[in-house]
Specification:
Elements lengths: L14 E5 L16 H15 L3 E7 L8 E5 L2 E6 L16 H13 L8 E5 H15 L3 E4 L4 H6 L10 H13 L2 E4 L2 H11 L6 E3 L27 E5 L8 H10 L5 E5 L12 H8 L6 E4 L4 H10 L2 E4 L8 H8 L4 E4 L4 H4 L6 E4 L4 H13 L1 H15 L4 H33 L1
Parallel strand pairs: 1-2, 1-5, 2-4, 5-6, 6-7, 7-8, 9-10, 9-12, 10-11, 12-13, 13-14
Antiparallel strand pairs: 3-4
Helix pairs in contact: 1-14, 2-3, 3-5, 7-12, 10-13
């Protein structure tokens, strides 16, 4: 995989075109298609701007009254591109709008002198398709972050969930082959790119995501803020409500636990979870635990940090995660995490030190692990201390600095290729 140790001497891009077709960085994470990727794009853009790199984020307009350009923060612009109907368009329908989106991106660049952007960074495969075309038109390097991979998701698909279509698999293969650099969240994701998508190992860089350590930190517990009981055991789930995230496993585990606990499910319907948005309520009722499950809408900023602190444990039972920012945020607040031993969660949670990793999704196994953790306050305190220490190794500043190394590497290699072509053409005469 790519060696970035010497990247500091290479040229830093002045302006980056960031592509996020299917979800806007201005959207609230935790519902619809907005999740950890939104957080990633926002946090990285702000920190790149602090380092003097301008960032322009292109995303699809989802309302007619959105301004064409919004300043998200100093040095960071969000450009709303009209591509298809504003509302009622599912992510699965977006491939048909990629031509319109690409046209909007190219037109924005054409309004400036040549060389306005030094680099393209696309997020998710839909954006990668646009980045691939813009790269050819602008003559600049293209860096891509997949965030999730269809072949991996289909290997670990939740019961009742829909597999990713063949069109996405082909689209991802094309993007991997056409990108100048590929950014993976973990070593596991890097190996997935190499083994399942034939990525060139020398073009793959591992750049772990971070956490806002100024916001997510240990502090006072305020359960009344969320209407939760002051006494008693609290398990929290934070994320989009869809089969992939497996909140149903926790409801089933709650019915198997020896002692009582309150399960907080914080998030909104997403993906195939939109088909039956009341499914979790019905499941809790059928298992006789409806009175022990509290549903909260997505939380932001300090409210989200307060929710993590209000819990005795945060549970992340996903069938797959490219990383798992929720796990990292909770640990930074001093709350141990019980997570499925899948994907990036194996990196985000240090088993036995900052939390516990669970093999599989059998509710009885989850009930045993949760019971033990909640019954042993001393063990929980040790894990809480380990959680804070583990999370402190990750920060968005570190992520931004490492990404800059990837960008410099890509720009340098691209310029060297152009120089070689020019020299070759001169020699031909």
């Amino acid at each position: 995989m790519a060696d970035l140790r010497a990247a500091g001497r290479w040229p830093t891009p002045r302006r980056i075109a960031t592509l996020s077709v299917h979800t806007s960085p201005l959207e609230q994470p935790g519902t619809g298609d907005a999740g950890g990727m939104n957080v990633y794009i926002v946090e990285i853009a702000k920190r790149l701007a602090e380092r003097g790199v301008e960032v322009e984020i292109f995303t699809r307009a989802t309302a007619g009254d959105l301004p064409p350009v919004v300043e998200m923060s100093p040095g960071v612009l969000v450009r709303h591109v009209t591509a298809g109907p504003y509302e009622g368009l599912a992510k699965e329908e977006l491939p048909a709008q990629l031509c319109a989106f690409t046209n909007g991106v190219l037109r924005a660049e054409a309004a400036h002198p040549p060389g306005h952007y030094d680099l393209i960074h696309s997020h998710y495969w839909l954006s990668g398709q646009v980045g691939w075309l813009a790269r050819e038109r602008w003559g600049v390097p293209h860096v891509h972050t997949a965030h999730t991979l269809a072949k991996v998701k289909n290997r670990f698909i939740a019961t009742g969930d829909r597999p990713e279509p063949k069109a996405r698999v082909i689209g991802e293969e094309q993007v991997v082959a056409a990108s100048d650099r590929l950014v993976a969240n973990t070593e596991f994701e890097a190996q997935d790119l190499i083994s399942h998508y034939d990525a060139d190992p020398s073009l793959v860089s591992v750049v772990p995501p971070g956490v806002d350590l100024r916001r997510f930190r240990p502090g006072a517990t305020d359960r009344a803020r969320f209407g939760l009981p002051e006494r008693g055991r609290i398990i929290a789930f934070v994320g989009r409500i869809q089969p992939l995230k497996a909140p149903d496993v926790l409801i089933a585990a709650l019915a198997e636990m020896r002692a009582g606990a309150t399960l907080v499910i914080c998030g909104g319907p997403s993906g195939s979870g939109l088909d039956r948005p009341t499914a979790l309520i019905e499941l809790a009722g059928s298992l006789g635990v409806a009175g022990s499950v509290v549903f909260l809408p997505p939380q932001t900023g300090d409210d989200l940090a307060a929710l993590y602190r209000a819990a005795d444990v945060v549970a992340v039972p996903s069938y797959n995660e490219s990383f798992g920012l929720v796990a990292l945020e909770a640990q930074a607040c001093g709350t141990p995490v019980v997570a499925a031993a899948v994907g990036g969660l194996v990196t985000a949670v240090r088993d036995g030190v900052s939390g516990v990793l669970v093999d599989g999704h059998d509710p009885r196994d989850w009930a045993r692990v949760l019971d033990r953790l909640l019954d042993e306050p001393g063990h929980r305190r040790r894990l809480a201390a380990g959680a804070v220490a583990h999370a402190s190794q990750f920060s968005w500043d570190r992520t931004a600095e490492t990404l800059l190394c990837v960008y410099r590497d890509a720009v340098s290699a691209h310029r060297a290729l152009i120089a070689a072509r020019v020299e070759g053409a001169s020699c031909a005469y």
